[in-house]
Design goal:
- It is a single chain.
- With 355 residues, the chain is of the alpha/beta class.
- It has two domains: 2-246, Aldolase class I (TIM Barrel), CATH 3.20.20; 291-355, no CATH class.
- Helices cover 37% and strands 23% of the residues.
- The protein is built from twelve helices and 15 strands.
- Strand 7 and strand 8 form a beta hairpin.
- Residues 13-18 have low confidence and may be disordered.
């Protein structure tokens, strides 16, 4: 089982961000963390302890986890540590402007093994355009600090497909990243979502599939192997185990306002409002997930990453379509699993087989 912990506070709201996060509710931080710890204790007892399970990975995301002072996390770690498998991967997201050396060092001492920095770009003009609150110097310093502290894994997020992006301009970002002691790179294409400042400005996004292929080739050429549509790792051991858990359709606890969980073939959705969550962290909506939906999700997610899909999931009619894709050199079959050769075509391949 996986554990996700959501921190819904941010220093500033990026223009493309649709996550459940707030910049004007810092006065609720302490009350929020109390409610979060109450939910965490209860759900670990109900879903993990009672069923004699263990937590394989932990991911602290947001929002901006580094907006919360390190000492507020001490009890959170004390609560979940007894349930961890040995050598569990524990990741925290962090923003360069708030992840001080002290914060990173204390999180490392609590047990965090991996830190993911929302850098997005090393170009100050692009950072300003995206509404980011840090600059390139703070990004460089944060990554170097994490390395000197001793983190086993350091991820750097980069966004592409933004107005003005070219292969040459993106190479500058990636060159800078490659010079840093990172072990993992996430390269995301900008998405425009409802409720963001960019929503009514479609011109800010570039839809250029060729640029995606060129960027992927460039990253692979520099020693980072693509293992999912947006994720690249220097070595197998640096791939995100937590993300793999989602792609493998493992159960996960979602702790915090708006943090989705998945247990007993149903998803649950805690209320998004911080104020309402503080009043009652167990106010949730539940959605049963049918076996057909589970199958579809396993295929869609399996095609998006190097994990692949079990052949036993497919019907005879679907296997005939799989065989056609093999003949077209779109997919590969090994050890009773089907592997996608082109992650950018993952949705199309899945829909072709299931359609």
């Amino acid at each position: 089982m996986l554990l996700y912990i959501h921190i819904p506070f941010c220093d500033s709201k990026c223009f493309y961000c649709a996550f459940n996060s707030y910049t004007d509710k810092f006065h609720l931080k302490q009350e929020y963390m109390k409610a979060l710890k109450l939910q965490l204790k209860t759900e670990l007892n109900n879903y993990v302890k009672k069923h004699n399970k263990q937590i394989e990975t932990v991911f602290i995301g947001g929002g901006t986890p580094s907006c919360i002072k390190h000492h507020e996390y001490k009890e959170v770690f004390e609560i979940f540590k007894p349930y961890l498998i040995e050598g569990a991967e524990i990741t925290t997201e962090a923003n360069p402007n708030s992840a001080s050396y002290e914060w990173l060092e204390n999180m490392y001492n609590y047990g965090v093994t991996r830190v993911s920095f929302g850098v997005q770009s090393f170009n100050n003009d692009k950072l300003k355009f995206l509404g980011r609150s840090h600059n390139n110097k703070s990004a460089l310093k944060a990554i170097q600090n994490a390395n000197s502290i001793g983190f086993n894994g350091i991820n750097c997020d980069i966004i592409y497909g933004v107005q003005g992006d070219t292969l040459e301009s993106m190479k500058e970002d990636f060159k800078q990243a490659f010079e840093l002691p990172i072990t993992h790179l996430s390269a995301y294409s900008l998405t425009i979502e409802e409720g963001t400042k960019f929503f009514d400005r479609s011109s800010v996004k570039i839809d250029d599939e060729e640029l995606s292929y060129e960027i992927f080739d460039y990253i692979n050429e520099h020693g980072f192997k693509q293992y999912e549509i947006s994720n690249f790792a220097k070595e197998k051991k640096y791939e995100s185990k937590h993300n793999y858990g989602y792609w493998e359709h493992k159960e996960y606890l979602g702790i915090g306002a708006g943090a989705v969980g998945y247990v007993d073939n149903q998803r649950y959705y805690p209320i998004k409002s911080i104020e309402e969550y503080i009043k009652n962290p167990f106010n949730m909506e539940y959605e049963p997930i049918s076996q057909e939906d589970i199958k579809t999700e396993k295929i869609l997610l399996g095609f998006r990453c190097s994990n692949g899909v079990e052949l036993s999931l497919f019907t005879q009619d679907e296997l005939e379509k799989v065989e056609h894709l093999v003949q077209e050199d779109k997919v590969l079959i090994q050890n009773n699993r089907i592997y996608n050769k082109n992650f950018l075509l993952s949705d199309e391949l899945a829909l072709y087989i299931l359609g």
